[in-house]
Specification:
The complex is a heterodimer.
Chain A (H helix, E strand, L loop, with lengths): L1 E4 L2 E4 L5 H7 L7 E5 L2 E3 L14 E6 L5
Parallel strand pairs in A: 1-5
Antiparallel strand pairs in A: 1-2, 3-4, 3-5
Chain B lengths: L8 H5 L4 H10 L1 E5 L3 H12 L4 E6 L16 H5 L4 H12 L4 E6 L7 H4 L5 E4 L4 H14 L3 E7 L2 E7 L7 H4 L12 H4 L3 H19 L9 E6 L4 E6 L16 H4 L5 E4 L4 E5 L6 H7 L4 E6 L2 E6 L4 E4 L4 E5 L4 H11 L3
Parallel strand pairs in B: 1-2, 1-4, 2-3, 4-5
Antiparallel strand pairs in B: 5-6, 6-7, 7-8, 9-10, 10-14, 11-12, 12-13, 13-14
Helix pairs in contact in B: 3-10
Classes of the chains: A mainly beta, B alpha/beta.
Chain lengths: ~60, ~350
């Protein structure tokens, strides 16, 4: 499926948001996920179905300082 | 009028600050936790802007690998292994003698956070770990003090202001259960200095607005940057969650936890052990002279052990065991030389 992930178009085999996180190996990491500008609660990652062209932003929290 | 009276003139000409804002800055009291890369940039800006009172806290000492990005330190500081809080205070006092700088060589724990935040009007995040950030978040939201988060690693960084009674808190945005630290520390995957300046400078912008009372114009978003493979993103801060254990239910979990006596310093090949008693460095210099090569400055004592690891003793009772990531091994060496 064609998606825009972190500003770049990407072809990802994904049915739900959780699949995208697994694709980028971000499962279990400190990540906040947005679809089309709305934060999606982690509890809904496996329920939210994806459609072509969705803009997904995976914000991976940065711990260093 | 002496020239020094003009030192803030360009900042006062900037209308949103003005003379009134400058007076507020001179009366402000800011706490910066962590005097590494972000912390030194934050402190430099605060002091040059004319903040009247600055409290800085750091548990570490200056090493050569810090000089690439930790802008207040120089080769002399690394050569003498000066504690960062002390080296920073010396440098900052030369920049602006009108700022009262209160330096603490210490860990920040549930036990001392109350005292460190006493009288403070703003907390800036210069830490390198989420455990301390959740502690700062909880203490700030309990006391109603604004907290400006910043983080940077590799070529990535982010920053967000959290305002008690207004925005969500760090826990609302990123629950502690969201995931664990994943080894992406500056000591593991590196960091380039421009991302540090970018993140810290954006923290300072929001900090200045808060200090001069221009709360309306505080940016209520999380900004993130990837500066090598260029991408920026701005995420609107969500509303506070009523079920948040910190700002919603006001349980402030990080303030309830008893601090552990053993802390891993992630990616640093170092374990920190917090002893119960202060350490008299003069005395320990004599006691440990047969354990290995001993070197000291007024703030810490280093022992290169014959086993290969290195001990660093601080007067507040902390001991860093360098050269291992195994807490059991660290405790064994601690027990062998310091005693449990």
């Amino acid at each position: 499926m064609k998606l825009t992930v972190n500003g770049k178009s990407a072809e990802v085999e994904a049915a739900v948001l959780g699949d995208v996180l697994r694709h980028y190996e971000l499962e279990g990491k400190m990540v906040v996920a947005e679809i089309d500008g709305n934060i999606i609660d982690k509890s809904a990652w496996e329920q939210i179905g994806l459609t072509e062209g969705m803009r997904i932003e995976l914000v991976h929290f940065v711990g260093g300082g | 009028m002496r020239d020094e009276h003009h030192r803030f003139s360009r900042q006062q000409l900037f209308a949103p600050i003005g003379e009134g804002g400058q007076i507020k800055l001179s009366e402000a009291s800011v706490l910066i936790v962590g005097m590494g890369a972000l912390g030194t940039v934050l402190a430099n800006h605060m002091v040059r802007a004319g903040v009247g009172n600055l409290r800085i806290v750091d548990r570490d000492f200056v090493e050569w690998s810090n000089l690439q990005r930790q802008m207040l330190y120089d080769e002399e500081d690394a050569r003498h292994s000066l504690p960062k809080a002390i080296a920073a205070k010396h440098k900052l006092e030369r920049i602006y003698s009108g700022c009262r700088i209160d330096a603490h060589v210490s860990d920040v724990t549930p036990g001392n956070i109350g005292e460190l935040m006493d009288g403070v009007t703003l907390v800036l995040d210069g830490t390198d770990n989420f455990q301390t950030r959740y502690l700062l978040n909880d203490a700030c939201f309990q006391k109603g003090i604004p907290f400006v988060y910043g983080g940077a690693v590799s070529s990535r960084g982010m920053s967000a202001p959290f305002l008690p009674g207004d925005t969500c808190c760090l826990r609302c945005l990123l629950p502690e259960s969201a995931g664990d630290g994943d080894g992406q520390t500056c000591d593991m995957i590196g960091v380039i200095s421009p991302i540090i300046d970018i993140v810290a400078s954006f923290q300072v912008v929001e900090g200045l607005k808060i200090l001069v009372g221009d709360l309306e114009r505080v940016r209520r978003s999380l900004l993130s940057w990837e500066i090598w493979d260029y991408h920026t993103y701005e995420m609107k801060l969500p509303a506070p969650r009523p079920e948040c254990p910190s700002c919603g239910r006001r349980e402030f979990p990080a303030l309830q936890e008893g601090g552990s006596d053993v802390a891993m310093m992630c990616g640093r090949d170092t374990v920190q052990i917090q002893g119960k008693r202060p350490l008299d460095l003069e005395l320990w210099k004599l006691k440990l002279q047969d354990a290995g090569e001993v070197s000291a400055n007024p703030y810490l004592l280093r022992v290169q052990l014959i086993e290969g690891e290195r001990l660093v003793l601080f007067p507040d009772g902390r001991v860093l065991v360098q050269g291992t990531e195994d807490p059991i091994r660290a405790k064994t060496l601690y027990a062998r030389y310091i005693g449990m």
